[in-house]
Design a protein that fits this description.
By secondary structure, the chain is α+β, with helices and mostly antiparallel strands.
């Protein structure tokens, strides 16, 4: 989902296979789009159930038929945004059935440390009902994206720095709770 507004729906990103981090973990690189669909026209109906459990949307879990690929991608984007800003998944459980139950309920906590604009954006994306989620264009037009994130002398953005800080994680630590 880029600023071009192209019709592209992500079928699944498998963390171990498709998205990798550079040596310093400062760059994410997309290595494969083998599970991607190029959407032609307005029909974005999908019926497959592939995907990373932490990113799956409620409608994929609740339907036996088709669902909106764009709305499901918006949900996954919300999970990614939450994870980048908070440092953990919005829904997490070791047992897949418990994880899916949490996703179906759509209840999560947003830390008070996030800015009001960031909270609003996350809440507007992680809506249980697909028709209530922002579209990709509405996400790009959201006030959070109009925030001045220009780099200051400190290396952090001049405004709303808390939205840009990555949690301090010792790379030698066990990251299983984060990546599993």
């Amino acid at each position: 989902m880029g600023r071009t507004g192209g019709n592209f729906s992500r079928k699944s990103w498998k963390e171990d296979e498709d998205v990798g981090f550079g040596r310093t973990r400062t760059r994410v690189k997309l290595e494969s789009l083998e599970d991607a669909y190029i959407l032609r026209g307005d029909d974005d109906s999908l019926s497959d159930k592939h995907g990373c459990p932490a990113y799956v949307s409620p409608e994929i879990l609740n339907t036996s038929g088709s669902y909106s690929g764009k709305a499901a991608d918006v949900w996954s984007l919300g999970v990614m945004l939450y994870t980048m800003l908070v440092g953990r998944y919005p829904f997490h459980d070791i047992e897949p059935s418990s994880l899916f139950s949490k996703i179906r309920r759509g209840q999560f906590n947003i830390p008070e440390t996030l800015s009001p604009k960031a909270k609003c954006l996350i809440r507007s994306i992680l809506r249980r009902e697909p028709s209530e989620r922002l579209t990709s264009q509405e996400i790009l037009d959201h006030p959070w994206f109009s925030t001045d994130f220009s780099v200051s002398n400190s290396g952090y953005g001049a405004k709303e720095v808390s939205d840009q800080l990555v949690p301090d994680v010792n790379m030698e630590e066990n990251l299983d709770p984060f990546f599993n």
